[in-house]
Amino acid sequence: MGATLVLVRHGETAWNAEGRLQGQTDIPLNDLGREQARAAGLELGADSWDVLVSSSLGRAIETAELIGRKLDLALTEKFEDLKERHYGDAEGKVVRDLPRPRIDELLRSAEPEEVVASRGLAVLHELVQRHEGRRIVAVAHGTLIRLALDTITGGTRSTILRNGESVHVDVAKLREYFGTPVH
Hints:
Strand content: 5-15%
Order of helices and strands: EHHEHEHHEHEH
Strand order of the largest sheet: 3-2-4-1-5
Helix content: 40-55%
Distance between the termini: 6 Å
């Protein structure tokens, strides 16, 4: 039996609430974000899980730790390559309600989407290869999750997950993307 993988977007931060691009700026969870993380843990608690990992940014680590308390599972690894997209000069800028051309202009100095997807998918592939037959929860970031999933499914999600939302990864499509055998 192959691995099962679920991705969870970290809980809300003050910058999320303000509509600011965080990227790799390490903004902590706010109180609502902590509640969202605990709620995600309760939701995931309907199943049993074996492995809990996160991005190396504080908001993802705290979300994972709060989820882990609900699942009675320790956070075992923090991955640099699960960090959010680096938005360059746009980090910290409020983009809520900006017209798309203005957002695109701000994103000119951002990390390329293909690079974000590639580094995130490499970690996810490593996890399912290393934890064959196990159930994995990985806490990461909205844009990274969206880009990674779009890459393996050929989809174009127009929106990212809500803070604290989880999504199951089609592990067969992930393996196909890397050309590894599907178990």
